[in-house]
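Postdoc handover notes: sequence design on the structure in folder B. Input tokens:
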């Protein structure tokens, strides 16, 4: 019981709340909480919690409440009797795949914006349709990127939609 009370004390809970939470088994006093969370997440086909041990005085857990990799979840669903060590291995592989996917997406978005700025710098009167064709993107994709570039103050429209042109904003130029 001492361990659960120390955790509750750390977060400023008052004494009656600590005692009632402990009596109702809402505070882990035996040290099985993290293991129980891992097993519970696996039974729900969700990613295992991430443990952050960077603070010597605390363990920070990130619990996922939704699927982040359908392949991982499907594997758990189809193989309900996997040993926990295998679940941990699959979880690590899944998070690596997701991280790589996210990094690739960010790099692609940055490259696309750079290409758009380059094309506009070369031809300020370029149309959305020409950008879409050149970059092999949809008009909606071009519109999204143009909005993002305008929000980031890297691009502005001079004149009307039909008769105007784009201007790439350098760091020295103010809007």
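Designed sequence:
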């Amino acid at each position: 019981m001492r361990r659960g009370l120390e955790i509750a004390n750390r977060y400023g809970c008052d004494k009656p709340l600590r005692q009632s939470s402990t009596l109702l088994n809402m505070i882990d006093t035996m040290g099985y909480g993290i293991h129980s969370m891992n097993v519970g997440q696996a039974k729900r086909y969700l990613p295992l919690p991430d443990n952050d041990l960077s603070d010597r005085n605390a363990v920070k857990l990130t619990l996922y409440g939704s699927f982040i990799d359908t392949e991982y979840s499907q594997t758990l669903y189809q193989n309900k009797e996997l040993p926990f060590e295998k679940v941990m291995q699959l979880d690590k592989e899944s998070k690596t795949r997701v991280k790589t996917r996210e990094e690739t997406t960010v790099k692609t978005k940055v490259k696309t914006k750079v290409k758009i700025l380059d094309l506009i710098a070369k031809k300020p009167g370029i149309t959305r349709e020409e950008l879409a064709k050149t970059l092999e993107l949809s008009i909606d994709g071009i519109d999204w990127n143009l909005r993002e570039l305008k929000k980031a103050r890297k691009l502005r429209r001079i004149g009307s939609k039909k008769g105007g042109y784009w201007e790439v904003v350098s760091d020295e130029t103010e809007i």
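Context for whoever picks this up: Residues 1-9 have pLDDT under 50 and may be disordered. Don't rerun without checking with the PI first.
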